[in-house]
Design brief:
Mean pLDDT: 82
Number of helices: 9
Radius of gyration: 21 Å
Low-confidence stretches: none
Helix content: 25-40%
Strand content: 15-25%
Order of helices and strands: HEEEEEEEHEHEHHHHHH
Number of strands: 9
Structural class: alpha+beta
Largest sheet: 5 strands, antiparallel
Distance between the termini: 26 Å
Shape: elongated
Strand order of the largest sheet: 1-8-3-6-9
């Protein structure tokens, strides 16, 4: 099991709240900062997401997935700064609108991710407050969004389990993509994908009880003791074991 898998294997959605909504302009929705992680994607049309200042709004368009970490409230609407309703009032106001009623309507998905496992604060804290990912045509993120949209237009047995697992998959793909491209990914992730250190860190992870020495780890990495120690310190900000 690699280090990222070990962090994510405990991440499980439990009773995830996910909704597919059709909204005609003008529309706006306020979502509380107590949600650990919110997921938003537009299936048709477009919208905007912002925190306390509408000037920081990001555009929501088909093919993108936006995640928002818990903390401040956030807002989504037909335009930045739109008047926003609370979730229950918003649902009641837009409940009767069908996707074919108005070609100007926006169809979007919102998910509220509550973790049942110990994901570790460091994992979520390593993500930006707002993270937008663009899914290419062959990107599995696009496939997951399509499956979510289809699941939410019908009522089936065990639907909550399907939604939870799809949201789990969406989270894993998003975090993997963000860490791969980010210069601020956690040190342990950057070190684990460093070709000089990956094999040694994997060995340490798989056999944490072993009293590892620098010469042993250097041999696994194919480096001299000094080169390994330097690479380890540069990547992780601390020296490896001294023996």
């Amino acid at each position: 099991m690699d280090l990222l898998t070990d962090h994510l294997v405990r991440a499980r959605a439990a009773g995830a709240v996910f909704a597919r909504t059709v909204a005609e302009p003008p529309w706006g929705l306020r979502l509380g900062g107590s949600i650990q992680l919110s997921v938003h994607t537009v299936v048709r049309g477009r919208g905007y997401l912002w925190l306390n200042a509408p000037g920081s709004a990001v555009e929501l368009i088909p093919g993108t997935v936006t995640l928002v970490r818990g903390g401040p409230d956030h807002y989504i609407g037909h335009e930045p700064g739109a008047a926003c309703l609370e979730p229950e009032e918003f649902r009641a106001h837009h409940a009767e609108i069908g996707p074919g009623d108005n070609p100007q309507a926006t169809v979007f998905l919102c998910g509220a991710y509550q973790f049942s496992g110990d994901v570790g604060a460091g994992l979520l804290d390593a993500l930006p407050q707002v993270m937008t990912l663009s899914a290419a045509d062959d990107d599995p993120l696009r496939d997951v969004v399509t499956l979510l949209s289809r699941e939410l237009v019908r009522s089936e047995l065990a639907q909550q389990i399907v939604l939870d697992r799809l949201l789990d998959l969406l989270l894993v793909l998003a975090i993997r993509s963000e860490f791969r491209r980010s210069t601020t990914a956690p040190r342990w992730y950057r070190a684990s994908v460093d070709p000089r250190l990956g094999a040694a860190l994997q060995a340490m992870h798989e056999n944490a009880a072993h009293p590892w020495t620098v010469p042993e780890l250097a041999t696994i990495s194919g480096l001299s003791r000094a080169a390994f120690a330097r690479a380890f310190r540069d990547a992780l900000g601390q020296a490896p074991c001294s023996t």
